[in-house]
Amino acid sequence: MNLTKQYFKYVSQNIFGLLGTSCYILADTYFISQAAGTDGVTLLNLCLPIYNLIFAFGSMIGLGSATRYAILQAQGEARAQRYFSNAIFSACILSVPFLLAGIFCPEVLLRLMGGDAGIVALGVGYTRIFLLFTPFFMCNYIVSAFIRNDGDPSLAMVATLSGSLFNVVFDYIFMFPMGLGLPGAALATAVSPVLSICICSRHFFKKSNTLRFLRRAPSIRLLAQSCPLGISGFVGELSSGVTTTVFNLLLLRLSGNVAVAAYGVIANFALVATAIFNGVAQGAQPLVSACYGKNDMGGAKKLLFLGTGTALALAAVLYGVVVGFTDPLVAVFNSENSLQMAAFAHTGMRVYFVGYFFAGFNIVAAGYLGAVNRPAEASATSLCRGMVAIVACSLVLSAWFGMNGVWAAFPASEALTALLTVVLLSKKKKT
Fold this sequence. Notes:
The protein has 17 helices and no strands. By secondary structure, it is mainly alpha-helical. It has one domain (3-424).
């Protein structure tokens, strides 16, 4: 199979897999909006940064370790085998603070995210349950990344989609027929990565499997070698949490809980959009790393070109859908038919999603830089879009234009980051 065909195989399957992951959050939002109205949507939006932080650690360890594994495997290095088990052990250790927070103080986290007394009371059970399943969320990310890098993207896609389908079905069953309410939604979401891991485990019984689980103590040195290559994934996931937190606090000050609920609608569709572009970046990563490991930089650059073109085409399609179906999309999560929330979300969707013309390119480029062992440049791009630019733009533009400035902060920050990314890509790697 030539490189272009491999690219479209890996990317398409990874997009579908990550779309499945994001869609179960959409399912949560829909069912929660039916059960608890705008307060339920507000709660879920306040919880999204916590989800993002969990996924960020899983992404950093999983993508970084799997990238290092792919490079070393392409070079015939036996020590590549140590990275899989080290990633699993490291994720379990990093899960401990989340587990403790879930057991002892979920209400404190909700207050820190800006929840008032009513939202905190509504969301304690929901927050506690999903925090207790943190190790499975992280390990699911790691197992999927390694299986993709071991030449089995189809199984990773099937596992992710199966977990997502389970979540959607059992969201409804747990919340309504069984009467568990919001804790039922959390339970369905929490169990879905367990199912995905079980399906992924089929890979380890295949003849093509090259992964080995080694019973060795966690190595900080191996983790330190891996994490820089996964920093773009870490910041990419974390950026959604940072953006959500900053936007929530600004919107609470400008227009209260209704504005946060409107942003909750936008943020959920944004998760789907981001998943599409992460699918392009993560799908291409094993191929780029393999080219780099074989010193085939021509092939790696071809993959970057294909990824950039794919991202721009997908951004155009995505924005066309948003503009054409804004009101029906918003109405899905507006069970109380709030005219104010609908108006806020209508404007927000159309302004916010302009940013994906730049964000798609930034995500693909950051993934490429990490895959060719340029962690400093990948980190710079990711930190700019996920931390520095988005915070600065949201503070400045909200002060000038109010809520419209909040919506415009995302496209503005991504455009600034795209300029930086072009400069970094034009530089040759220092040897």
